[in-house]
TrEMBL record:
Identification of the protein by name: Uncharacterized protein
Superkingdom, natural source: Eukaryota
Originating organism: Cichorium intybus
Length: 74
């Protein structure tokens, strides 16, 4: 990997990161809902899967920006 300073890639990724941030907020709400449901009914495996999916959504904005930084050359 050459230079890590890619301002063009960062600027292009900002609108996508904004959309991913909205999905991240939704993911955090889903995570809290899934955790509460898994505490109420621990035998329900779908709540655990729902919580794992929401963790992926919470990490999405950072993943989008890093993907753009890796994808667009200097």
């Amino acid at each position: 990997m050459g230079c890590r300073c890619r301002p063009l890639a960062f600027l292009i990724s900002l609108p996508f990161a904004l959309v991913a941030s909205v999905l991240s907020f939704i993911g955090s709400i889903v995570y809290v809902f899934g955790i509460v449901l898994s505490c109420i009914c621990p035998c329900c495996i779908c709540c655990v899967l729902l919580a794992n999916l929401s963790v992926i959504l919470v990490k999405l904005p950072v993943d989008v920006v890093l993907w753009f930084l890796d994808f667009i050359p200097c």
